[in-house]
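Record format v2
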Amino acid sequence: MSKRRMFFRMITASLLRRRSRMLIALLSIGIGATILAGLVTVYVDVPRQMAAQFRSYGANMLLVPSGSVLTQEEADDAMALIPEEERVGAAPYRYEYLNMVRRQQSFAAAGTDFDQVKRTSPYFKVNGRYPESPREVLVGKGVADTVGARLNGVMELTWFPPSTQEEDQGDADFDIRPGMTLAGHAQGYGSREGFNDNPVYVTFTVGGDGTIASISVDTSSETAGVGTRCSEEAFTDLFIGKKPKDLVLGRDVDAVSGATVTSAAVVQAIADARPVTDESAALVPRTINYAVVGILETGGEEEGYIYMSLDDMGVITGTSDQLDLVELSVSATQDSLERYAEEITASGHATARLVKRVTKSETAVLGKLQALVFLVTIVVLVLTMVSVSTTMMAVVTERRREIGLRKALGAPDSAIRGEFLGEGLFLGALGGLLGAVLGFVFAQVVSVNVFGSDIRFNFWLLPITVLVSMAVAALSCLMPVRRAVAIDPALVLKGE
Amino acid sequence: MSLLDIRNVSKIYGELKALDNVSIRVDQGEWVAIMGPSGSGKSTMMNIIGCMDKPTKGQVFLDGIDIAKESSRRLTDIRRDKIGLIFQQFHMVNYLTAVENVMVSQYYHSMPDEAEALEALERVGVRERARHLPSQLSGGEQQRVCVARALINHPELILADEPTGNLDETNENIVLDLFRQLHREGTTLIVVTHDPEVAEAAQRTIVLEHGRLVREVVNEHFVE
């Protein structure tokens, strides 16, 4: 039998035949390794866990148009620069002013994707529910209070084209041709007297003889029961068969009694009308009734908005695929966020901005939290090592007599150290392996209870735990062994 | 030439003279008993001869080497190579079987050889107990295993400290018979004891008292 085989035979015998002692040592190392692996796993995973937690405080990155508008495609391209697993949510927003004509008030409205809003703004408190079907709106509490909107009520909203069109008028000469559709608008009573900014809109088509074939008038901003009568057929039919050029009120058409200003506005709108091209087809006012399915409470400026789906926003404005803003919630560190923002801006798809208020405070809290976990880890680690060493020392000290005997039998100190080191390393490896597995379970339990999510297993932690355990076990064996071999074998053997 | 030549050895612990100018010679193949009451210095003498302690004064030649001058590391080597130890409390590694305990001695000396270890157990009459742990052996069996362990490396000197102190008469006789056998084969034996019967089995008895050699008796009734 070789010396090596005898060496292993002795170590195996020691581990197997001194089972209870070995279990105590193994348990001690195992528990130590469990705590080490567990806490380090938690420590390493804290930034990721907390980053996810912080996402409940809202978006931390904004995408705004690089040019005039941001299309969905540009937004998607920009977002592709952020790893998918880090994107918690991306809510697109398109803002328009919508009017409640009867109340002569206009409100900021946002078209968005509610599924994404739930992710980027988890703090939104919706009384009722989020819109799911077309023509459903979520109304901010501020808006609801102002207009007296109720849950499950109906809200009539009108979109008016931007009035900047006027500047273009008169620039282009055109001939009126049969089949042409023209649209125009002019200041009515409401806007002239300052009740609102909305003009009177007229849309008409030209027949084969160059006269007006059909006409519709939108007087929804005018005084109800007075100016609004100008949109009734009794008045509009007066224009049928008339040449649209050079109409004169009172000569060609009689004004609606009591609504002279509005009537004049209709005539003026016809005079100013421009052909409706594809592009400008959208630029006609639209009024749609919406069901109020939810009232939004946030305590912030969001309460001053009306929210609807992007599709609904497209329907009422006649144009789609124009985003003003994308709110992104990204689960990443400040450094990564800054890098992503730079990459996105550099790509030219969109301009990315960080919500500094959110990211800065996140970084500060994270730093403190990680420092705390680090401190706890170190303290626990030191305590664990002391406890492991004490146990190992006790187990070895018990064997002083055996060490004395081996010395008396002629064992050099190095051989005795080697034998105990071998046992220590074996126990350390076994305990470390046990601890690495249990530690992950421990970290998982901590993570689920504290953060409510699964922990990520770091595979490099396995060899490190095993190595640290082996080192601690070997060191804690060697210290008492060194003391024991220094002792005179005669004294050890004489005792008892 | 003497195997062991102790010349004017003193061992002093502070005020106490454990050994006081003692000289002893033991020849190759001789069987010597060292006797004395407790505190007589026989344990100190045993430790010095066993290379586990060094004298304060004097010289101790073992096989021509003055062990009083050697380092403790060298003493370990000398003990391993030249001396087989037998203790009163047997002292076995409690998680190793009888044969493994014998093999431990081989392991530190040269090469473990299970067959040879079993042969040694056969010789002391506990071959059938080879696979038992110390806790499963009687005191007599344990001491026989220890004798086997002491002789396995063919030492020049077997040094036994109260080898029968923890044994009944039957087992005492078995052990003494083993010693007689070893003596016949030419092994040098030094037995430290306070038991006159054990001492009488030896060729010569050296009596220590208060650290001094007071008497040296040649055993007239010694049977070869």
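The two ends of chain A are 34 Å apart (CA to CA).
Residues 286 and 315 of chain A are 9 Å apart (CA to CA).
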